[in-house]
């Protein structure tokens, strides 16, 4: 199957250092107009190289960098640890802004210590002076004060792409965003994003309505784009239907339904983090947004299918995943 990749320009956002725009799509969905789903089956054959066959770079060559703005997961399965492993797999130099330190494993979060806002801002300053990553992904931000600091950091860096993963609740059920954090994300971060990547529970919070079936998820992603005027990828991993998991991507003009086989018997941690990080990594590597999403969907499906046991838990096999 050969997929046709269409690229979009963005407007109404913040200009990056190259004069490009980060932020809202310039094409809003037409309210009340039916937009049919274009179904894409993963894996695809799209003609890009596997991560495993990318050419070796000499010590004098230039490697682009990507940034994760996230919390530390002591179990290594989610958060900035998962993001940095994903960037490495895609052959992108990974940088990080640490927002909080957690004591956790896939069973639960024992403690959370947020990083001081001043230190969050200084991390952005150090990256701006030394790396200036071309693509940025945010995950666990914990508080409204940190959200606002991240917003200021993004305006400082002016990346080509910003992916907002609105992390609110851990797989174990622990709350990872407190106080007025949701409102801060809605006000300060979503307007800067090229793409927002909620799971079903997070989309319910952003819309303030339940999403119980795949048909509701399809309608929800349209409502999200109408409300926030930015592209959304609604991750449907918690709503498998007839052996298929569907993610819904809407950019204001078209709806793509990305289908993959539901992989039974897996109990992995950090799939949402890894998925968003893979999109960010492929964008940093030069892909356009839709292409990066297709690659990342294949990447996370590979990682889940190849998951392995470590200690008492299962972990995503990022090392064997690819964007084929």
**What is the CATH topology classification name?**
UDP-N-acetylmuramoyl-L-alanine:D-glutamate ligase
Q: Please, how many helices?
A: 8
β-strand amount: 15-25%
Spans of at least 5 consecutive residues whose pLDDT stays below 50 are: 1-30, 45-56
Roughly how many Å is the radius of gyration? 18 Å
- Cα end-to-end separation: 12 Å
Second-tier CATH architecture: 3-Layer(aba) Sandwich
Number of domains: 1
Helix content: 25-40%
CATH homologous superfamily (4th level) name: Ribokinase
Q: What is the spatial order of strands in the main beta sheet?
A: 6-5-4-7-8-9
State the name of the first-level CATH class.
Answer: Alpha Beta
Order of secondary-structure elements: EEEEHEEHEHEHEHHEEEHHEE
Note the overall shape: globular
Mean pLDDT: 83
The largest pleated sheet is described as: 6 strands, mixed
Structural key phrases:
UDP-N-acetylmuramoyl-L-alanine:D-glutamate ligase; 6-stranded mixed beta sheet; 324 residues; 8 helices; disordered N terminus; 22% strand; alpha/beta
């Amino acid at each position: 199957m050969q997929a046709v990749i269409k690229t979009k320009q963005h407007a109404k956002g913040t200009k990056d250092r190259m004069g490009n725009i980060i932020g809202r799509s310039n094409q809003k969905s037409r309210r009340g107009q039916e937009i049919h789903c274009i179904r894409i089956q993963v894996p695809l054959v799209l003609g890009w190289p596997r991560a495993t066959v990318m050419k070796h770079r000499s010590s004098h060559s230039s490697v682009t960098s990507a940034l994760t703005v996230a919390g530390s997961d002591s179990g290594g399965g989610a958060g900035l640890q998962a993001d940095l492993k994903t960037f490495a797999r895609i052959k992108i130099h990974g940088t990080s802004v640490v927002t909080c330190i957690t004591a956790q494993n896939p069973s639960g979060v024992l403690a959370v210590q947020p990083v001081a806002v001043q230190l969050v801002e200084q991390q952005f300053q150090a990256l701006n002076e030394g790396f200036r990553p071309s693509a940025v992904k945010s995950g666990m931000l914990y508080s409204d004060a940190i959200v606002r600091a991240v917003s200021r950091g993004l305006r400082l860096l002016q990346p080509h792409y910003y992916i907002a993963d609105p992390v609110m609740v851990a797989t174990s059920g622990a709350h990872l965003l407190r106080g007025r954090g949701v409102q801060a994300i809605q006000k300060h971060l979503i307007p800067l994003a090229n793409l927002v990547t909620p799971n079903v529970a997070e989309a319910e919070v952003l819309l303030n309505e339940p999403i119980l079936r795949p048909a509701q998820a399809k309608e929800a992603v349209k409502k999200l784009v109408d409300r926030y005027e930015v592209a959304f990828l609604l991750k449907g991993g918690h709503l498998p239907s007839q052996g298929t998991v569907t993610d819904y991507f809407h950019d204001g003009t078209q709806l793509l339904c990305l289908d993959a086989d539901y992989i039974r018997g897996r109990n992995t941690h950090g799939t949402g983090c890894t998925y968003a990080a893979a999109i960010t990594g492929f964008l940093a590597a030069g892909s356009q947004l839709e292409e990066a999403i297709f690659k990342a969907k294949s990447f996370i499906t590979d990682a889940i299918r190849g998951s392995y046991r470590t200690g008492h838990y299962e972990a995503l096999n990022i090392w064997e995943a690819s964007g084929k």
